[in-house]
Write the structure tokens for this entry.
Amino acid sequence: MTLVRCADASRTFGRGDQAVVAVHGCTCEVEDGARVAIMGSSGSGKSTLLHLMAGLELPTGGAVTWPDLGDSPVERSRDIAVVFQGPSLLPALTVAENVALAAVLTGTDEAEAGERAVVAMESVGVAGLADQLADTLSGGQSQRVAIARALALRPRLLLADEPTGQLDAETGGHVLDVLIAAAEESGAALVVTTHDAAVARRLAEHWQMNDGRLVVPTREGVA
């Protein structure tokens, strides 16, 4: 089953002489259960492509569709979760409140969202931090909580934008372990953008972004 399909999708920011093409005509599909690394240097367009897959950005050319995730943005918001590169927690809320928030905002009953939050926090090893304010956490703890928040949605598609990019190698390795294990346990497809070959090696498929252009190898290894 195809969760997201990009058909010659492009994204341009600005107009006229100020226009910047971040993504040029990308064509790709993410299937149920996929494990994909999108590799590329800073500014290559990989984060923009991830945002197109999430529906956070709209294509300015081509199309992005979600064949097996429903027709409306509201339906898709329950099935797609994003772990961002930078800080994304609300500092004035506790860890537990942060983890439950996305589920609540997508229509889950508060009691159920709270129960999902407990399960998600336990699965990534942050249950002991439940009552701490988010602004007291370390970088690694914050990313684990962000992963828990994504899992509380119980998504079918988990998108992670450079989840280890701002962490040291050891902490980043632990966060990646948690992310992959969580995707395995939940059955979600996982797409990770990264500039780190060591991160990419942990995932089955390797796509490459260069200057906004995507290369997706075929099964025979031919682009």
In short: The chain has a mean pLDDT of 90. The longest strand covers residues 2-13.
